[in-house]
Fold this sequence. Notes:
eight-stranded mixed β-sheet; alpha/beta; 19% strand; globular; 8 strands
Amino acid sequence: xxxxxxxxxxxxxxxxxxxxxxxxxxxxxxxxxxxxxxxxxxxxxxxxxxxxxxxxxxxxxxxxxxxxxxxxxxxxxxxxxxxxxxxxxxxxxxxxxxxxxxxxxxxxxxxxxxxxxxxxxxxxxxxxxxxxxxxxxxxxxxxxxxxxxxxxxxxxxxxxxxxxxxxxxxxxxxxxxxxxxxxxxxxxxxxxxxxxxxxxxxxxxxxxxxxxxxxxxxxxxxxxxxxxxxx
Length: 231
């Protein structure tokens, strides 16, 4: 059976860490995975540093949803895996995706671990993973993966500046329950550490609740980032 995964990586000014991040993905590339960098107009050396380590570079309008959609348009893999540039896949990612390929699920995500060493981060990541299993909703930090044909059927990510991951999961779970992989991706806890763990948790809960109430994603983006958002 032919099988391929396209990894779509949205970036914006990631020059400081992009080389090491992509180097860790080279064994997957050698195994036949396609790496696509979808850059949102970086003003640093992100693109030039990434070019030797990816199969394609797509220059996109800024905004994670737009970047991921544009990256997906050029992807050739049967499965699209959307990976943030501050998130590391588990060592058995190749086997995990092969198992997903023969499952009945249309999509899925990994459990997540936060990079911070404090005990509170173990509590937070446990709650994130539990909530995701109960609700069938994942965040971008969990490396969401979707069958290419299903992604096209849904029309990709909604062009909204925030909550694009939650929104597409709501549509996906109408098709099938997610394939929940217990192997963990490791994602950076830098935002939690910078702004405070509990303050960040409360803000995220508030944003999710307001999104559920129908508050415009543009307003939520301004509250989260403190600036207008791109789609």
